[in-house]
Specification:
By secondary structure, the protein is α/β, with parallel strands linked by helices. The protein has three domains: 2-70, no CATH class; 77-119, no CATH class; 122-384, no CATH class. 41% of the residues lie in helices and 18% in strands. The chain has helices spanning 2-29, 50-55, 57-69, 73-98, 125-145, 172-178, 195-201, 211-224, 246-250, 286-290, 300-304, 334-338, 352-356, 362-369, 380-384, and strands at residues 34-35, 40-41, 104-105, 110-113, 117-120, 151-156, 187-190, 235-243, 259-265, 272-275, 278-280, 310-314, 321-326, 343-347, 373-378. Strands 7-6-15-13-14-12-10-11 form an eight-stranded mixed sheet. Strands 3-4-5 form a three-stranded antiparallel sheet. A two-stranded antiparallel sheet has the order 1-2. Helix 6 (172-178) links the parallel strand 6 and strand 7 (187-190). The termini are far apart.
């Protein structure tokens, strides 16, 4: 009996050792890039330095990395979040419905408003001014350096631009566009002036605009760029899968808070697509989802197309070439805009260098690709980001 117990103990300890070794191996050699459960980049192991060892930051980094990279850690966090969200929502459901005109905090970054909309806090203009000044100066320099290329700016307002309780707006759009040395006809925006505007144009659980908002943005941008024949929806489809978006994940409510996902269907003209220089069959999985397929987990990026350093659409029409500098909001309208141009170059400067292996040189890019027009498009995060440079 004693020998049997020793054998069982040894087997148990061996399994623990193998599990920990596998966790370390994954963290060191096969780390995952994204923590999908929390909608952020996963922590990774970094090289130790004398300074990081002495101040303890390396040790803290190891703990954070193992927490993200350990086998089954994501599933464990998801299970905890699922249980806690169900308990919390069950206890507070009456409060959510009775206080629809008040922000009810769910976590550090996300609140509930209007009963079931997950929203971010309104940003303060005084906090944004230095970065907005910096970005306005960069856009002005970019436009001045390339006078032969018309530059257009489209600003997408959302929950961060207005306080739904008071109706007071942050004023970031007005401040930024007022500082731009561009003709008024080269500046436009999706304006949100009330919660009703927001609820009509944005998702309940995700930070992106919905099919109505993105189509409205497409029409605005097409007019901004000089007009053209807009694609009209060939139909409207509600998928049999539900969206549990970025804000649901961020607040620990993935799978608990979800919503119907409806999209317009379009008859796109034939076009080729290349992602980071490699030919791709398509961008996004719209047709797959409409046909009842697509990835099991529905996301905005999975449906419309993910963030890439460079996407090139070519209709072969011989029309003008468009450069789009943007972020994930433009994913939903890239194919729509590309339909009206010869070649469309969509560049996400957050990922361009890492994914293409090249630094983005605006002048060289414009010259090499015969760019006729340049569009900057995004919400406040785009215009505040240090990663969005126009050198």
């Amino acid at each position: 009996m004693h020998k049997g117990n020793n054998w069982v103990n040894a087997l148990f300890l061996g399994c623990i050792w193998l599990f920990l070794t596998a966790c370390l191996a994954r963290a060191a050699f096969f780390p995952k890039e994204i923590s999908s459960e929390e909608n952020r980049y996963a922590n990774r192991l970094s090289r130790p330095t004398a300074a990081s060892l002495l101040d303890g930051s390396f040790q803290d980094g190891v703990e954070d990395a193992l927490s993200d990279q350990a086998l089954f850690s994501g599933r464990a966090r998801s299970a905890v979040n699922l249980v806690s969200s169900r308990v919390r929502d069950g206890l507070l459901s009456g409060l959510y419905s009775s206080q629809r005109d008040r922000y009810i905090r769910l976590c550090d970054t996300v609140s509930i408003f209007g009963g079931d909309y997950l929203v971010y806090d309104t940003r303060r203009l005084e906090d944004m001014r230095p970065q907005l000044d910096k970005k306005a100066a960069a856009i002005n320099s970019f436009a001045a350096a390339h006078p032969q290329i018309p530059v257009y700016v489209y600003y997408i307002e959302k929950d961060t631009d207005i306080n739904f309780e008071t109706g007071e707006k942050a004023g970031a759009r007005e401040y930024l566009t007022g500082a731009l040395n561009l003709p008024d006809s080269h500046k436009a925006a999706l304006e949100i002036n009330s919660f009703e505007d927001y609820a009509r144009l944005f998702y309940r659980t995700d930070h992106h605009w919905n099919y109505k908002g993105s189509y409205r943005g497409y029409l605005d941008v097409l007019e901004l760029l000089g007009g053209g024949n807009a694609l009209t929806p060939a139909g409207q489809v509600t998928l049999d899968k539900r969206l549990s978006g970025s804000k649901a994940i961020e607040s620990g409510g993935k799978g608990v808070r979800s919503e119907e996902f409806t999209a317009y269907r379009f008859d796109f003209p034939p076009m080729t697509v290349a992602v980071n220089g490699v030919p791709a069959g398509d961008y996004g999985a719209q047709e797959e989802y409409f046909a009842g397929g697509g990835p099991e987990e529905l996301t905005y990026g999975g449906f419309y197309g993910a963030d890439y350093g460079e996407i090139v659409f070519d209709t072969g029409s011989g029309g003008e070439n468009l450069l789009i500098l943007g972020e994930s909001h433009d994913n939903a309208i890239l194919k729509l805009l590309a339909s009206g141009f010869g070649r469309t170059f969509a560049v996400d400067l957050r990922y361009y260098q890492a994914q293409t292996g090249k630094e983005f040189d605006a002048w060289d890019y414009i010259q090499s690709n015969g760019i006729d027009k340049a569009l900057l498009i995004g919400s406040i995060g785009f215009y505040l980001s240090d990663e969005i440079t126009l050198d």
